[in-house]
TrEMBL record:
It comes from Papaver somniferum (Opium poppy). The chain crosses the membrane at residues 23-45. Residues 158-268 form the Protein kinase domain. GO terms for cellular component: membrane. ATP binds at K186. This is Protein kinase domain-containing protein. Keywords: ATP-binding, Kinase, Membrane, Nucleotide-binding, Phosphoprotein, Transferase, Transmembrane, Transmembrane helix.
Amino acid sequence: MASLIDTVYIELSKPTIIFGIKLWILITICIGLFIFLILCCIITCCCRKSSKKHKVGSYSKNPNLEKIVTVPSNQSLVPPNQSLVPDQVQIDVNKTEHRLSVTSNRHASNRHSSARSYRINRSTSDIELDSIAPLEISPMAWVRWFTLRELNDATDIFSNDNVIGEGQYGIVYRGVLPDGTWLAVKWLFNSRGQAENEFKAEVEALGHIRHKNLVTLLGYCLEGSSRMLVYEYVDNGNLNQWLHKDVMQVSPLTWDMRLDILIGIAKG
Ligand SMILES: Nc1ncnc2c1ncn2[C@@H]1O[C@H](COP(=O)(O)OP(=O)(O)OP(=O)(O)O)[C@@H](O)[C@H]1O
């Protein structure tokens, strides 16, 4: 045993052909370099991850926004031309990727019809559309496609101060466009099929009609997994407040007025 140790010691102490460095020193340097390289790889990976997280964090006050901004910019769903008004929007849901197709006959720069297709990778977009049939929205006469950026700017990145209400399907934010137009932006909850159905029903129905008793749908936003409906802002409080005396001590609504409201709603 002792002789074996002696032999190993002698072998390790022999100078090598590399600058005559002893073998044990050379082995130590190699092991050190190996560990150093592994550490470098780990640090590089961590830095990349944290810089991605930083981009998301600085963009979103609202945690829901994380889902949107994690879609890489080269796969952006925003049509490069923001004034493009789509005649048809279709999302094809596939096991590995989703494809959003936008077809438009009205294009800001030319009068020809155009079709665009945006691809999203499942792994990066985190879209939860598995159980949803392809969404098709038929041509809309009035409604406009808002980008998420426009709505972020309008609502101060969906700040809590701008929350004006919450319904069954989403939270409603007050917003204002650069031209001074006030908006009510309903951000639909991402509850899979339900939000999708509400989105489609509202766009299909309100996108085609104008009535003095119905709030006007100005447009919608369809980006990543977000579904938003953009209405004209009506600063009248809501029916609940009027019926349950939130506006005054006693509800100012007489039975005749209530009947009128009911008939008005029915007409709408
Ligand atoms: N266009 C708007 N202008 C001003 N406030 C609005 C507008 N739309 C909605 N709100 C406010 O947001 C609240 C929630 O609206 P939302 O449409 O989500 O739900 P709802 O109509 O109250 O009920 P439901 O969920 O059954 O549709 C309303 O009660 C109202 O206070």
